[in-house]
Design goal:
By secondary structure, the protein is α+β, with helices and mostly antiparallel strands. It folds into 2 domains: 177 residues, GAF domain (Beta-Lactamase), CATH 3.30.450; 67 residues, Orthogonal Bundle (Arc Repressor Mutant, subunit A), CATH 1.10.10. 56% of the residues lie in helices and 9% in strands. It contains 12 helices and 6 strands. The N and C termini lie far apart (56 Å).
């Protein structure tokens, strides 16, 4: 098989792995992304030595762990942790690229213009990353803005075109799950105000709420359709939207999530 054929086969396998992985995430009532699990999954997918989680804090610096937690980084992990907690982190070319261009997408250091990479080299960051065998960096943002929350995979070889395409897809996918989790968290915070406020917070329409209530009573889609005097396919459309807004993929987890939010009786 040609190199291109091998890369295509690997990409197809990785797509399937991520489809299953995200399906598992969507079965959970997430209030935030499980960044540790995602980081380890990214490490496996992109054959990275380590994956860093970068989350901007109020001071403009970045907090977050480096996975796996036992990654030695050629014996320089302590130096890398110190670098990441210092102002030097702001010289990283990917951070400079995002803040300088506003183009928040999956990018890698390889091939970046010198205006983004020069400060990193001058301050010794590039040399440290090379000594840690992670000088090639791939960033996958999960939100927008000049200082986005990102996951950055590091290794000693550049990332291929197929890997960059996969990274772009994962950025959009994880971003959507992140937005959904934050909306769900907001809905939970509003739960103390009553089910009407929760329904409003997750943009659940009165009809969708009615369908959800009947689902919680154990009715099938056909029975719900007869009760509400609507077509069964319409019920399925309402259920699809309910699942999406609740961050679930099936009727059981939909009912459980709705019960936790106080939308239906437990």
């Amino acid at each position: 098989m040609s190199t291109e054929g091998v890369e295509n086969a690997m990409t197809g396998r990785d797509d399937g792995d991520w489809l299953e992985f995200t399906a598992e995430l969507l079965r959970e009532p997430l209030t935030e992304l499980p960044m540790d699990r995602i980081a380890l999954k990214l490490r496996s997918t992109f054959h990275a030595c380590a994956v860093a989680i970068n989350e901007p804090d109020e001071s403009g610096m970045f907090a977050g762990d480096l996975y796996p937690l036992d990654a030695a980084l050629e014996g320089r992990r302590a130096d890398m942790e110190e670098w990441r907690s210092s102002r030097s982190v702001l010289t990283h070319p990917i951070l400079r690229y995002y803040s300088g261009t506003g183009d928040v997408r999956a990018v890698q250091v390889a091939g970046m213009e010198s205006r983004f990479t020069r400060p990193w080299a001058v301050t010794g960051g590039e040399a440290l990353f090379r000594e840690c065998a992670v000088q090639q960096q791939l960033s996958i943002p999960v939100e927008r803005g000049p200082n986005p929350k990102t996951l950055v995979a590091g290794r000693d070889t550049p990332f291929t075109e197929q890997e960059m395409q996969l990274a772009g897809t994962l950025s959009r996918l994880l971003g959507a799950i992140d937005r959904q989790a934050r909306a769900y968290a907001a809905a939970l915070r509003s739960a103390k105000s009553g089910p009407d406020d929760v329904a409003s917070a997750i943009r659940l329409t009165p009809r969708e709420r009615s369908v959800l209530g009947l689902l919680a009573e154990g009715l099938t889609a056909g029975a719900i359709a007869r009760r509400l005097d609507i077509a069964e396919r319409t019920v399925h459309k309402h259920l699809e939207r309910c699942y999406s807004k609740l961050g679930v993929t099936d009727r059981l987890t939909a009912v459980l999530a709705a019960q936790r939010l106080g939308l239906v009786a437990a």
